[in-house]
Design goal:
The structure is a homodimer of 580-residue chains. By secondary structure, chain A is an alpha+beta fold. Chain A contains 15 helices and 31 strands. In chain A, strands 3, 7, 8, 9, 10, 11, 12, 21 and 24 form a 9-stranded mixed β-sheet that branches. A 5-stranded mixed β-sheet of chain A has the order 16-14-15-17-20, covered by helices on one side. Chains A, B: Pfam families: HGTP_anticodon, tRNA-synt_2b, tRNA_edit.
Amino acid sequence: MRFSQLYAPTLKEAPADADLISIKLLVRGGFVRKVAAGIYSFLPLGFRVLKKIEDIVRQEMNAIGSQEILMPIIQPAELWHETGRWDDYGPEMMRMQDRHERFFTLGPTHEEIITHLLRNELNSYKQLPVSLYQIAMKYRDEIRPRFGLMRSREFLMKDAYSFHGSWSSLDETYKQFYGAYSKILQRIGLEFLVVEADSGAIGGNESHEFNVLADYGESTLLYCDCGYAASDEKAEYLLQEESQEGAVADLKIVPTPNSRTVDEVSAFLEVTSRDIVKSLIYKGRKGYYMALIRGNEELNESKLKAALEDQTLVMATPQEVLDLLGVPIGFVGPIGLPKEVTIIADHTIKGLKNAVCGALKEGYHYSGVLPGRDFKIDSWHDLKMVTEGDPCPKCGAPMKSAKGIEVGHIFKLGTKYSEKMNGYVTDEKGNSIHYIMGCYGWGVSRTISAIVEQLHDENGIIWPLAVAPFDIIVTAVNIKDPIVSEKSIQLYDILSEAGFEVLLDDREISPGMKFKDADLIGIPVRITLGKKLAQGIVEVKPRTEKKPLEVSIVDGFDTLLEEIKKELSNYRPVSKMEAE
Amino acid sequence: MRFSQLYAPTLKEAPADADLISIKLLVRGGFVRKVAAGIYSFLPLGFRVLKKIEDIVRQEMNAIGSQEILMPIIQPAELWHETGRWDDYGPEMMRMQDRHERFFTLGPTHEEIITHLLRNELNSYKQLPVSLYQIAMKYRDEIRPRFGLMRSREFLMKDAYSFHGSWSSLDETYKQFYGAYSKILQRIGLEFLVVEADSGAIGGNESHEFNVLADYGESTLLYCDCGYAASDEKAEYLLQEESQEGAVADLKIVPTPNSRTVDEVSAFLEVTSRDIVKSLIYKGRKGYYMALIRGNEELNESKLKAALEDQTLVMATPQEVLDLLGVPIGFVGPIGLPKEVTIIADHTIKGLKNAVCGALKEGYHYSGVLPGRDFKIDSWHDLKMVTEGDPCPKCGAPMKSAKGIEVGHIFKLGTKYSEKMNGYVTDEKGNSIHYIMGCYGWGVSRTISAIVEQLHDENGIIWPLAVAPFDIIVTAVNIKDPIVSEKSIQLYDILSEAGFEVLLDDREISPGMKFKDADLIGIPVRITLGKKLAQGIVEVKPRTEKKPLEVSIVDGFDTLLEEIKKELSNYRPVSKMEAE
């Protein structure tokens, strides 16, 4: 393709609202354009990258026997009512009405649709397993769309669903997807980490996230040399229980005027934050909860939602707390709590004695608190947000942390959807059983951002060969020079015939602008036909190298072709992280 | 692929709401499933066909230098307000609000988005022409979705847009698209007719529709041996004007109790329907219109909308007419009409004398009416719905008619969108000019229905090779027979290696069911390994033939492979129409 004909408007400056290096470079390089908050158009360069990622994903899905289908984007609300997710999903689900005032959602995911699709047609265990996938647009009405393609409202996903007559069959397919996802990332050429993950609103028993490592990744990952790795939403740790034995004080109410936060109370009462019971009020489907954790720890809401099996759970507003308990949030505590509020405590509370908590009276806290003696706990759970240095749950060594961008997520759904939507098959004995399901998502458009976050430098994007919009850019420094023009077109033809995707920069602009654009859009190899062409010399420069290699074409293009093939077969950009 | 692993649930009966043979066969054959009215899922077989059509369309777009992009499905209302189409488009446009109550449409088309995309980045005529396309879902909230994929609410379209600095450049690109569209239909192997078309809500100066011929096509096409062809919405005819000369009668009001329709009035007054002025009230953006045409002709609303340049035009309701004129619709006429109602007349009114029209008085008509003398006409237009037998506008010969399914539509938009949305480029002289646009739609999912409507028989679908889900089906009659099993797998491997897409029917069901399914899903060639395999004989049967050919594999598969290659290279199913 000739650059003069390619619709790729490059920009010197990124728009002011571009908040990450990836979206800055993608906009500047003419890959994408924003249409509205979280909504993008893919221009020809961006589309080429998207298509290459899509094709790699498709090939790996086909390789594990998943069959491609296409389900509708607009989904009738009735199906979502069956599973209860019409209410559970919250305002992130885009909703609309048709001209007959029937409700639809722009699908954020397709469990309901596919369970419905198969429930009347799958009859026997003999038809199982079945694995189906699609590559299609998905919608999520982010309250604040940001990070370009990483947190957009319309995005391209590959979603797959599998159906099984036994758990062992699900396990086998789950492993195949695990392998396929790893292979996709290896083929693209990215550094990644697979972690145990929280299954959130999708549900199910087990899930893994595939994260591309990047300095500004949205996800925090905990990992250990022993092999354990989990997202911070899911990560567990080795609990070292403290004993409550030893001297205990009496419960005492103490004035704590204007001391509301953990820091304020610990300063005022001269205790450590570890000695404070942090009491947080949450509102769920069945009412109010008080979650307790030590003052020096952060509560992990994903764990709380999982423990209470309630994805609608949100922190109560200060006003709701005031209405419920008659006291501002800074003075809330578990002693004397109305019975309708369920108390759920993190394990760290167990070892507490002589602790401090809010007194349910404005301006007062209790000291000398002993959990168990002074208040009852309805249930114990691990609710702690694990951080770097916490002991690994498998081996006890201090864990490390990294930032990642989630591109894939696989789930063992089990019978969650087949139960709610009456999906049955008959098993070998003729019994009706709910089929067991798995689901497997891949963020196709998001992968573009992940690649750029990991692979770029100060001059622009560094695409891995597998997804680069073109393999080679031939830069004709002065296209008006007849020799440059002739040779660059000749070279373009030879390289195209050899099977390479070539972009010929034949624009009538300065050499500096051409070099800048070539670096910005990040094509793996640049061949420059400049002044030295008079002596039969062309330059070959991989995007990852600073200095070009000079190759003579006096005796024809064979040597050059060999050199390019060598460069491309060895081409493997590495992230700064890895390089460090 | 093995049929036992393919997710293709075939059905004996079509669902009751399937209203055309194509959707009946597509559902029965396990190609698609309905999710809600006008909303479908594509199962693996259907997806394979869809993808093949998509790929043919993509190749032909790339061949004429159009560049693939991807624009969002959800489009901000603001852009549609700029062109006025937010109001013009009516209830067929799907609308929604996001969580911030901002309005969006699920795009029925993308002129606004692409004009916006380019308006800030196209600067100079030197960047032109540019041609961009996408293949993506489109939405139309049909009041009564029907005919399966032909009139669905969510459908896959290829839409392309071109941008030019001159009309001659647009003409050139328009011709390229015309050629590419013809080639797509030739490659698929369909009988089609290209006709001049009305450009409707899209607008512009010229447009052509590409129609696949089919008995139950939605579009009526008029055509002539001289080469003229147009859709009935657009078709013109050679007007033979009658002279008004000769004796004229005086205008007379006559009672016509209970005679409201043309037929009733012509019977009651003993005049022909040709002598009656049919007066129809329409409501548009600027008010009310009365459209006049002879009683024996039908009014063409597309022509009326085009003549009045008002796509919002609808026929007034009986109540609106009563409120406006104080008389029921059966007695409406142009004599004494309030001035705020504009009179627009078809050319056929010109030759009328001694005519009859409603008297604007309940129970009365006028006779002896002479247009011009008795009432004034604000403007004359061709408003007639042309039908079979009307004289060709080019050569005067009686036109023929055919039914077609519109799969492609190309438009010369001109400057409609660049004017409304401030899209400028500088021309050679440095002047700012609005760029000139073309747009080019192709119904990708609709093409599936069109193919099946044209190519089927009483047993099922007859796919052309270019879009068949598989090239060959190998029917292993009794898969439990070890020789059948061995040979069918061997044959499957050989054919697959030879580059064919093969479906191996290894299911444990009766031979009759296998043959029925093979015919239903319409794979071009069936190879049967049955009882005669004991003598080394297999059967080869193209889908279009009644009788199989017997081929010996005693000396290996070479002869068979030759035979199959021959059959497939000659394979060209023809429509019944053509065969007749």
